[in-house]
């Protein structure tokens, strides 16, 4: 992108279902690795000042003859706007980082939605399915509630990853893999970012899991045992005893849903 261009922050669109999906999935781990998920949706509608800014950004490619897999001929006005939209989405999702020197060749366009869906599910399955067996339903229900997925153009971003690079939000010590997708709905003028990465706990030396479900249930049992000890049988109502039994019977999915600050999507 030559000398790069200044960023344009996009308007964040609030969808509680996306927050719910992130809460249910991000941070889950097995014995050796942890998964992180970021889901954010942005509006591509620009105000008058923003339109002027976009036109200034488009001048970067006024004489460009580059042809790429993702965008085709970059001298085409429509393709330039698409690239700028994706770059500005990154700026908006990761405001502490600069993406002014991204190359158009770092993006790839996917034509088969089913292949993308299956690939995302497969990446998450090894870690997430053990704790949240219905994670696919949670994830894709959230996505479908915020954007018309099957009508989206799908792009994938391939960042340049260097060991020790603290200027890149996609790299961290122990990184095993990372994938970043954009679901761009041109007619609805919005784009959804899905960014996920898997990090080795063995490399980082982090072998603890603050959200470990075994510890979670053990703590619940300890709390209930303490209450049983502190409360006499005549002070403990049948409703309270039934509530404790129901809580001990919660699945990991149900427990996370119960403590989530986001409402469960209908």
UniProtKB/TrEMBL annotation:
Residues 221-249 are annotated as: Disordered. It comes from the Eukaryota. InterPro entries: Maf1, Maf1_sf. This is Repressor of RNA polymerase III transcription. It comes from Blattamonas nauphoetae.
């Amino acid at each position: 992108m030559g000398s790069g261009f200044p960023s344009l922050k996009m308007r964040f669109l609030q969808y509680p279902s996306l927050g719910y999906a992130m809460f249910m999935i991000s941070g889950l781990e097995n014995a050796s690795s942890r998964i992180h998920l970021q889901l954010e949706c942005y509006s591509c509608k620009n105000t008058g000042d923003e339109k002027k800014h976009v036109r200034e950004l488009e001048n970067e490619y006024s004489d460009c003859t580059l042809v790429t897999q993702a965008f085709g001929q970059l001298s085409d006005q429509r393709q330039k706007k698409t690239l700028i939209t994706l770059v500005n989405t990154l700026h908006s999702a990761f405001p502490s980082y600069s993406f002014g020197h991204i190359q158009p060749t770092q993006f790839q366009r996917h034509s088969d939605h089913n292949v993308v869906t299956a690939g995302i599910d497969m990446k998450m399955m090894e870690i997430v399915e053990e704790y949240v067996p219905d994670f696919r339903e949670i994830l894709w229900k959230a996505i479908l509630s915020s954007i018309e997925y099957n009508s989206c153009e799908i792009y994938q971003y391939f960042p340049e990853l260097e060991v020790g690079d603290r200027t890149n939000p996609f790299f961290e010590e122990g990184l095993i893999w990372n994938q970043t997708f954009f679901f761009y709905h041109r007619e609805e003028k919005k784009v959804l970012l899905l960014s996920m990465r898997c990090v080795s706990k063995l490399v980082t030396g982090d072998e603890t899991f603050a959200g470990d479900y075994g510890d979670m249930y053990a703590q619940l049992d300890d709390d209930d045992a303490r209450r049983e000890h502190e409360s006499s049988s005549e002070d403990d109502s049948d409703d309270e005893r039934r509530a404790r039994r129901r809580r001990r019977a919660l699945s990991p999915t149900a427990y996370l849903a119960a403590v989530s600050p986001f409402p469960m999507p209908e």
